[in-house]
Design brief:
The chain is an alpha+beta fold and about 100 residues long. It contains 4 helices and 3 strands. A 3-stranded antiparallel β-sheet has the order 1-3-2.
Amino acid sequence: MCLHEHTDFSLDEYPNFYDSYKAYNAMIPKNVSQSQLGSRLVPKDLLLQNNTELVNIFRKVVDLGHDFLATAVDASKFEEANSHTSVDPARRMAAFSAIFGT
């Protein structure tokens, strides 16, 4: 499947992480021993400055028959100087989490 082909899009909101985890993991095949998953946090700067190249890479991954899922991340409110949290600095700068499966 190519990204420029018609695909169905859905957006769901959940009251907490655990409910979203249960909903999305129900879609993962049960025999995941034959799958390989990897993920990366994609920084906002990369998305804004190299958008065309980034989209071309994602298209190539999908064209090769691999799965791709992006989950929006907004931890920017934790960038404040007075914010003392355990949020990973890379997550604070991320636009989304990209998950790849083979």
